[in-house]
Design goal:
- Helix content is about 10%, strand content about 55%.
- By secondary structure, it is mainly β.
- A three-stranded antiparallel sheet has the order 1-2-3.
- The two termini are about 10 Å apart.
- About 0% of the residues are buried.
């Protein structure tokens, strides 16, 4: 099971953002890599739900 980390960022322009870090397993080597995204705070659950 991959870890999911969410860090809340400061508000800008009335919107709050969050940095989402996901561990993704490589198909070729089996090693884990980390994917980082900055998304709106209200879209965090949707971002974590996609593979």
């Amino acid at each position: 099971m991959a870890k999911k980390v969410v860090a809340t960022l400061k508000k800008t322009d009335g919107k709050s953002y969050a940095k989402v870090i996901r561990a993704v397993r490589s198909e070729k080597t089996g090693a884990y890599t980390f994917k980082e995204e900055i998304v709106a705070a209200d879209l965090v659950k949707e971002t974590l739900a996609k593979k």
